[in-house]
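Review form for a predicted model. The reviewer records the input and the model, then writes brief findings.
Reviewer: anonymous (R2)
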Amino acid sequence: MRRLVNFCDFFVICSGNTERQVKAIADYMEDEVKNMGIQVTTAPSVKTNTWVIFDAGDVVVHIFQKQAREFYNLEYLWQEAKRVKWEDATLKGQETKDKV
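Model under review:
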């Protein structure tokens, strides 16, 4: 993202199927990054159970409910950004995912 914007290096975009899943993902992520000692800002105007934004400086995380992710379509909006291959360590090489 750095070549397109001046406020972060990476966007992480993920989604849950329901509002409850979005809240669970956001709560878990908030706890984990705080345990790692990373300062995180949550956009209060966007912290709903359909879209949560975490700003960790160089990394901005968007957690969407599936319908909201389709509506806002950040992947299309930021399509010029270089995609980074990311492998989930819990999958032990079973699957590789694209992250914007």
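Findings: The two ends are 8 Å apart (CA to CA).
Further findings: The beta strands are 10-16, 41-42, 51-55, 59-65, 84-87, 96-99.
Recommendation: see findings above.
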